[in-house]
Amino acid sequence: MSAARVAVRIPGRARLVVALASFIGLTAFTWPFVVAPGKFGSNYAPPLIFGALLVLVLAVVIAEISAGGIDAKALAMLGVLSAVNAGLRPLGAGTAGVETVFFILVLAGRVFGPGFGFTLGCTSLFASALITGGVGPWMPYQMFGCAFVGLLAGLLPRLRGRAEVLMLTGYGAASGYLFGFLLNLSFWPFATDPNSSIAYLPGLPFTEQWHRYLLFDLATSLGWDTGRAVTTGVCVLIVGPAVLTVFRRAARRANFEAPVAFASPGGDPGTDPGAVPVAGSAAR
Question: Looking at beta carbons, which pairs linking 91-99 to residues 24 or more positions away fall under 8 Å?
Fold first, then answer.
């Protein structure tokens, strides 16, 4: 895996935390297939419990990555891209499924790595929710959905040139459907008439439950998700090459993983108390 492929590497312990958070996030999304409503005394208890858990897990993940895997330059990049995404989101506002957030997540996850993409997905949606007033019980699920988009972008196969752009275009379109598919799972048990053929019914075999959910997703969300998929795919195809070049140039100039050495004009590195710290190639 080349340096251009992953500009911000996450250490082993932080990777474990991200993996654990991803597992908990998937459990939170797929709870209708695991826990029946009413098991905790209320039909709405499972999503509320999982929502609170997601907030806690996200806080732990961001704290762990910030403390052990992302230096000040990478944190600055994370802040800038989070602000850019927060500013881009109102431009689409989800009208007819048009979303302008995901193409930045795909391209940043590709260049800066899966851990960075995961964190950017969380911080972008959190910042945009504060700006647009979209804070609510759905926010943790939106944050995790975008986190998965950035995470998977960083795990795509290593390609370059036109093949890479086409792969990212296809993934960008697929991520539009993936996000909608996951978000629908969080409220499906409460969004339909229990007598409907697409409603969630506790106790059904997994295959029948899964079939009902697929019909629900196709009937209620396909058009909306298609708008998101087309927007993301087109944005990646048109501006992807230029943005990838900018991100990779920024990663090279930032030199995120450069070791810090102390050098002074008149002595050996590290021996002069007044020496100036220099990172990587900047010492030359």
Answer: 92/231, 93/132, 94/224, 96/223, 96/224, 96/227, 97/176, 97/223, 97/224, 97/225, 97/226, 97/227, 97/228, 97/229, 97/231, 98/227, 98/228, 98/231, 99/176, 99/227, 99/228, 99/231, 99/232
